[in-house]
Design goal:
The protein is α+β, with helices and mostly antiparallel strands and 447 residues long. The protein has helices at residues 2-22, 27-37, 39-59, 109-176, 181-215, 246-256, 258-278, 309-315, 334-400, 406-440, and strands at 24-25, 65-75, 79-80, 86-87, 90-105, 226-227, 284-299, 318-326.
């Protein structure tokens, strides 16, 4: 009875598990899942939080600091009185104080430091965006590689089906005495080779799916993970002008891409830090506040009269307010060297900005040339596929009538399969390169 009671629940769990295994991941789902679970992104998020803390610390530099202290002294024989006179008495002195200090002017060190920390925080945010962009490109590459391997597996399955048909025909031809028995052995050997090729293709599909699943940080990356096969555009449709020119893509990318923005923000931060270093040449003005109090108790020879505790708290309290001015005269060239270091940091960061722009333009140029080459290769391989299909069809007819050997048939079939593989490779190569160009143009990667 208990088993029957839980049968509906067990059925529901089984159906949910089957549905989970049959779920096909889209590219958008892969990117979203990786963005939420990637370890590198989590580390960069922690770096961003660190920059936020540093910015908050800089903003709080304007606030006064407040310190408190207490002390207890025991003097035997000769000890100081509360008036500062040394007397022949034993004494006990309890003291307490509060001190506050607030900067009024520090050569504009604090405002420049606050601005620099804000720029560092914005640069960390752009660095996180850059990491997300890199992750999206990597996932797209792995995703397309898995789709490519699946199409190669389909080609291998097609080759096995074609060879299997020829094995059946060859057996009939051998029985009819039209071809020798050796051709049957040859075509069976070819079928065995095709099965090996299919096994390798199937393993490549599994490996590509495993690599993608590991990139997604899935806990069980080999448990029924699979991807959806979207309808992809045909590279042969549309003129070559559909591929945007590198200069036009770069003009958009240099204003949009986070890697450029990050380096520019870091440059602004270095310039602020130069002003922070120069603040060492200026005097510093601080506001000081303090409150102190104490209690004195005397014992020893002679008449001793101790003032009550409450009266001493009223009599001994001291309140102080004042200004302190510090004027730098000679700092062993520390300030000068700090300024020099800050200027060198600016020059170094300017080179980093220039290098980031050159790397970006180089990547765009390479993506453009690779996209054009892939489209041309796809066009050529499409013609090769058509020619190979006709050649294979002719070879198949000749073999079916016993007018050609198994070697000739296998050679034609192999060339046809090779042309199909080259076409698929060119297709996915073009799609990936064109998606990169779209990505640099500010459009998200979608399939």
């Amino acid at each position: 009875m208990k088993v029957k009671q839980y049968l509906p629940l067990i059925g529901l769990l089984c159906s949910l598990a089957a549905e989970a295994q049959d779920h096909l991941w889209t590219l958008e789902e892969c990117v979203r899942h990786a963005t939420e679970n990637n370890i590198d992104l989590k580390q960069r998020l922690l770096e961003q939080e660190t920059r936020e803390i540093e910015a908050n610390t800089a903003r709080n530099s304007w606030l006064p600091n407040l310190n408190a202290g207490m002390g207890q002294n025991f003097d035997f024989g000769r000890s100081p009185s509360k008036d500062g006179v040394i007397v022949d008495r034993n004494s006990a002195n309890s003291s307490a104080y509060l001190q506050a200090n607030m900067p009024l002017f520090d050569g504009f060190r604090i405002p420049h430091t606050i601005a620099a920390r804000r720029l560092d925080l914005q640069a960390a945010i752009e660095s996180l965006h850059k990491a997300k962009d890199d992750l999206a490109i990597s996932i797209t590459s792995y995703y397309l590689q898995a789709l490519y391997n699946k199409e190669i597996l389909n080609i291998a399955e097609l080759q096995i089906a074609l060879t299997g048909e020829q094995v059946t025909r060859t057996e009939a031809l051998v029985e009819a005495g039209k071809v020798p028995l050796s051709q049957l052995y040859d075509i069976r050997a070819q079928r065995a080779k095709d099965e090996v090729t299919r096994t390798e293709a199937r393993n490549n599909v599994k490996l590509s799916l495993l690599n993608l699943a590991q990139l997604l940080e899935l806990e069980r990356s080999d448990a029924g993970f699979d991807i959806a096969a979207p309808i992809l555009p045909d590279p042969s449709t549309g003129p070559t002008t559909d591929i945007p020119m590198p200069d036009a893509v770069y003009a958009n990318a240099v204003a949009l891409k986070p890697q450029i923005r990050e380096q520019e923000l870091l440059l602004d931060s270095r310039r602020r830090m130069l002003q922070v270093a120069r603040a060492g040449y200026f005097p510093q003005l601080n506001l000081n506040l303090s409150y102190s109090n104490g209690y004195y108790h005397y014992s020893g020879a002679g008449d001793i009269s101790n003032v009550p505790f409450s009266d001493q708290l009223r009599q001994n309290e001291r309140k102080t307010i004042g200004l302190s001015l510090s004027i730098p005269i000679f700092s062993r060239f520390e300030v000068r060297n700090n300024v020099r270091t800050a200027r060198a940091g600016i020059l170094s960061q300017e080179l980093s900005v220039e290098n980031a722009k050159k790397v970006l333009y180089k990547e765009i140029q390479q993506a453009y040339l690779n996209a054009v080459a892939a489209r041309e290769k796809y066009a050529a391989s499409t013609e090769s596929v058509e020619a190979g299909r006709e050649a294979f069809k002719y070879a198949e007819e000749r073999y079916a009538t016993g007018r050609s050997t198994a070697f000739e048939y296998n050679e034609s079939k192999t060339k046809y399969a090779q042309s199909l593989s080259e076409q698929v490779q060119a297709k996915y190569d073009f799609i990936f390169r064109s998606k990169i160009l779209d990505f640099y143009n500010g459009r998200p990667i979608t399939l």
